[in-house]
Amino acid sequence: MPITYELQTPNSLSLEQAQKLLAIYGSPLYIYDGDHLRQTIDYISQAIAYPYTQFHFASVTNGNIALLQIFRDAGWGLHANTPGDIYLGLRAGFPPQQIVYSGSNLNQAEMEQVLHWGITTLNLDSLSQLQLCCEVYQSLPPSHTLPLYLGLRLNQPEINGDSRIGVRPEEFPQAIAITRQAGLQLQGLHFYRGTGTNATKAFTQVIDTILDTAQQLPDWEYLDFGGGFGYPYRHDGSAFDWHLFGKELTQRLQQLSQPIKLLIEPGRAAIAGCATLLTRVVSVKWQDSKQIVGVDTTVANLSVPAVHGGYREIVSLSSSNTNPPFLTDICGNTTYSRDYLGRNCQLPPLAIGDILAILDVGAYGYAMSSHFLHRPLPAEVLLEQQEHRLIRQREDYSVLLANQVFGEP
Ligand SMILES: Cc1ncc(COP(=O)(O)O)c(C=O)c1O
What pLDDT is stored for residue 9 in this prediction? Predict the structure, then answer.
């Protein structure tokens, strides 16, 4: 059956649903559509026909345990950027062998912790991290019998551009020597194209170069292709073509003289579209013909639009107003000069109490929120088959005191 499902999602919440959820859980509120997430996981999984493929969700984008469990139940592993990602993955029930660590700059204690947790596949970012990993592995007690699959993160300026991450091909001989000295093999090459491009060609046109480079590793057994697949945040813009990518990658891999394992670690592409941040209008004023709308959330709850220049579509759930839209700024509930959730949006005239939906906030949304501006973080709710359940509590002010040491002298 052809896959007709589209990754991008227009807002699917009705006003009645939003009102009900805000009445139960309060505002602002992160809402995840679990059914949509499962459909997206299936869509991506089916796009790559190559038989030796394993998907790993990049939990840097979202570390909520309930959502990680959806990936786990779908048979995906986890891509860990940090020991914290591993910790969350283990708590979500991923077996350590299904968590691939591909991060950067661990100190010795952290490297020990990662191996102690039973992680067996590690893609190292530098020769010194590789050396450290080998040394730590050799120092493990004889009772630690797990094998180790080591890979290198690739830094090839022609394809990676100016990136701090990875090892250059000219360093491969040294890397092979370090690994062999420890009685291990260098079996993997990890390639990360870069952040969130919807230009499918940016991935397909480098496949041959990556495969040629990987074959410089005599013990090569797996390719980890990232990461970095785009999501169409602008709903009328271009979208990453998973089927074209899957077809071209499969074709090239099948031409290799012996089968290698393929790892794919989508982050935003898998989870961005399943979430919405609901917020209520608390203030409206006009500056000439521009509408200045104050809402009960802030860039500290969703930092991507203001801090990283990303675009997230904002729609009004309340208005059935058919007037032409007005130029509108959606402003957070602080006076921080960058506290805009959206600038120059086209929205109908709004009123206090109206509900706005900020779309596609599943990736780098809650995960990048912070206590900057000293506002406690929103709750997270999961919708599945017409049911809703809380998957993270709303914070209260006590969180602002957590770990502070104070008191009367
Ligand atoms: C190695 C690696 N893989 C995957 C990801 C997830 O990226 P994206 O959301 O662009 O797919 C990242 C993000 O930093 C990464 O560094």
Answer: 58
* Domain end (from 272, 293, 322): 272
Find the domain containing 295 and state its range.
273-396
Among 111, 82, 125, 79, smallest CA distance to 98 is for 79
Could you report the per-residue pLDDT of 235-257, keeping only the tens digit for each?
Answer: 888 899 999 999 999 999 999 99
Confidence of residue 155 (pLDDT cuts 50, 70, 90): very high
Same domain, 280 and 259: no
CB 388 within 8 A of CB 21: yes
CA neighbor of 193 nearest in space, from 166, 220, 175? 166
Q: Is 267 in the pocket of ligand 1 (CB under 6 A)?
A: yes
Please give the average per-residue pLDDT across 330-359, as a whole number.
96
CB proximity list for 236: less than 8 A, separation 6 or greater: none
Atom of ligand 1 nearest to the CA of 103: 1
Number of domains forming the structure of the chain? 2
The CATH number assigned to the domain holding 296 equals 2.40.37.10
Give yes or no for residue 227 CB within 6 A of ligand 1: yes
Angle formed by the axes of helices 172-181 and 127-138, nearest 10°: 10
Residue 365 domain-assigned (yes or no): yes
**How many angstroms separate the CA atoms of 171 and 201, rounded?**
28
Q: Give the list of residues 6+ apart from residue 333 with CB closer than 8 angstroms, or none.
A: 282, 294, 295, 296, 297, 298, 339, 375
pLDDT at 141 over 80: yes
